[in-house]
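Consider this today:
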Amino acid sequence: MMRSLVVEPLPDAAAAASWTTAEERAAAAAFGSEQRLREYLGWRAVVRRRLGRATAIGYDAVGAPVVENRPGVRIAVSHCRGHVVVGFADGPCGVDIERRDRNFGRIAARYLTEAERALSDDEAWLGVAWCAKEALYKAAGRRELDLRGDLRLLRADLRSGAAGFSAGRSVEGEAGAFEPGDAAAGPAATTDGADVSDAPLVRGASGAVVAGADVLRTGASGPEGIGDGVSAGPEPPACLLPLTGCGRIEGRIGDGGPVRLVAWWNEEMILVSTV
């Protein structure tokens, strides 16, 4: 289960320095790209601020980032121009953040079946679907997966500018659907790390859609440092304000069971996470 999401502007090298090792800074300096340097160091700084300076970071056999000295803690990482997001979980997890100005329609046939494309007519759907497939790929933890055959989207319920959810749409032949009126349980992304288990999407006082506004948790962390904090105020991720939509999706990896995902987006970015 995803326990918390941290969404932050990418720090510069100086800001990340105290949270990264000399070896990491030397590796980043060899990239020859300021953007890659900030991404490489930035997410490591986020992880250590959340889990502690002594957290050892590495990669697994398929090249996914892992924390090596925190048993039971899984991480998922994504970044796009100017922002980084890190998910902390107690099991397989995935997250993706993308700019909305990317031309998803040009490559949609490579990652969506016709049935999947028809799951929503929301203008954000092609981007949300791409992010959902990326999150599923990361949660799968293995390579050589076909985006159309091995990673499938079964149901989707997207609402631009609205917090309510209906039964949504499902791929023909897939049993069941979202229960009408259910809260969209999922991670509540914040800029400072939040407990994200079972956080609904609700409408804030300003009328904008807010992620889990009345159930965010920050402050004192649980034994793993990935959630179970004290109650905090209704602050959605600053990078997504004002939110223009939110949604929930159900997918599947291979022959496995259903995987729930939650999505938020504004005019500039889309964020999708496994639940």
